[in-house]
Amino acid sequence: MSETVAQTISSAEEAAFQIDRVRQFVDKEIRPYTSEFDKEQLIPETLIKKLANNGYLAGNFPKVYGGLELGPLDYGRLTEEIGRVSPAVRSVLTVHCSLVGESLLRWGNTEQKEKFLPGMASGDTLAAFALSEPSVGSDARNVETSYTKADKGYLINGKKKWITMGARADLLLVIASCEDQVSAFLVDSNTEGIKRSQIMDLMAGRAAYTAEIEFDNVFVPENHLLGNEGGGFTYIVNTALDHGRYSIAWAGLAVAQEALHAMVKYARKRKQFGTGIYNHQLVQEMISNAVVNVEAARALCTKAATLREEQHEDATIQTTIAKQFASKIANSVANDALQVHGANGFSAEFIVEQLYREAKVFEVIEGSTQILQQVIARHGLTRFHK
Amino acid sequence: MNQKEQVRQFIESNLIVFEDEADLKDDDNIFQLGYVNSLFAMKLLNYIESEFNVKIETDEMDIKNFSSINNIIALLDRKLGVTE
Ligand SMILES: Cc1cc2nc3c(=O)[nH]c(=O)nc-3n(C[C@H](O)[C@H](O)[C@H](O)COP(=O)(O)OP(=O)(O)OC[C@H]3O[C@@H](n4cnc5c(N)ncnc54)[C@H](O)[C@@H]3O)c2cc1C
Fold first, then answer.
1. Are B43 and B68 a contacting pair, CB within 8 Å?
2. How far apart are CA A356 and CA A155, in angstroms?
3. Model pTM greater than 0.80?
4. In this complex, is the C-beta atom of B19 within 8 Å of any C-beta atom belonging to chain A?
5. Nearest-CA neighbor of A160 among A97, A70, A95, A109?
6. For the packed helices A45-53 and A3-15, what is the interaxial angle rounded to 10 degrees?
7. pLDDT value of position B19
8. How far apart (Å, rounded) are the C-alpha atoms in residues A227 and A229?
9. Which residue in the list A80, A133, A358, A366 is annotated as catalytic?
10. A101, A150, A233, B2: which could join A97 in a potential S-S bond, CB 3.0 to 4.6 Å?
């Protein structure tokens, strides 16, 4: 990014958060290269630095820690703008800002916040959230990665898998168990005993350094325990996943919105049977469904933002509802957008190819569609019986 | 409404308790009864902090402090130093 754009952006931050600035940044720094990141399976370090310089790696952090102090709605819109063009770059925000950042903000003590948050904001410390394991996914309470007490700290042993940014991150929030207690640890990824390998050629999140991480007697100092011992699942994981779901709700909306744009742009240009394909009513049906679904997802995300802002007791369930819906319609809209593109939709020259691949993962991460359906049904059963 | 009734009402509004099920007792462990899921633990914590204007410290985050109506009231008494 040129100096002038950078300067305009930082002076805009002084005033108010302007989504147009984010759009300019995304169009210049991410959009032209998104399929390149995907092919090379990496996010360039220069881009990570630029994201940090604009405050985007700490959009939701308070200013005292170097953040932009955005409220839930603005943070959601930031997530959307980046997520429209590169789900991989957006996933950095999901794990770094939402899952790890918010858990630290909520449960970290002053010393931990001061130690980690400024570095996370400046991009010097990239963070990842390590919960899932080869044999443990939805049933996350039963993590097998274990910890034992050691002199002045803890020793962690086990294996994590599917960790977004895991191969690149400097800081790992690791969930481990000791007998029936689950606890959360802030672990420096360069500690002796940690072995990380990027899982290559994934259908989604290819550029997001998704990794398998092994822990062999990894020492973690006492003061790197986040929250209290035993509170790792009930409090830390639930806080992290609530924020993760909020991020994925906007990520789903982002993919659907971008797919809708791509679909309309293509339908207006492409001609078959002597007319623009947009004139064919069955193509119009796909456009119509996409418009309605995007509007509905946006309304749900916005409502979740409002309730989060108010710290309303229904904020969590509303977030779950928004994530559930947005992740599903991301798939249907991306699917239809690819259909409208015909053969071109299969080429990386068109963004729908990437959107289609990336959408499916939203239905699996941060609580799968089936797990969230049970949570939402429970809510329905307690709320609507009178 | 006193604190205990407020807490009870909040918990009951979040339980799946059908008409033929027994009433919630003050000492019932709401987590062990399986009436609530782990998401409720966070919701309960947020409710207690905002409704009674207290900050639950990390060392008080023990799930035992929140497992029954009586335990919650005991925690609130310790924090607020008063009983209604
Ligand atoms: C690209 C990518 C990035 C990821 N990033 C991270 C990360 O950063 N950190 C991290 O910790 N994890 C990460 N994950 C892992 C992700 O959180 C898990 O995939 C998710 O929790 C689901 O677990 P699982 O894949 O083991 O599926 P399983 O839990 O084995 O589920 C398989 C299927 O069974 C269904 N199922 C399971 N239990 C039930 C039930 N009780 N009722 C009905 N249906 C059920 C599920 O819905 C699913 O359809 C990532 C995964 C991917 C693909």
1. no
2. 41
3. yes
4. no
5. A95
6. 40
7. 58
8. 7
9. A366
10. A101
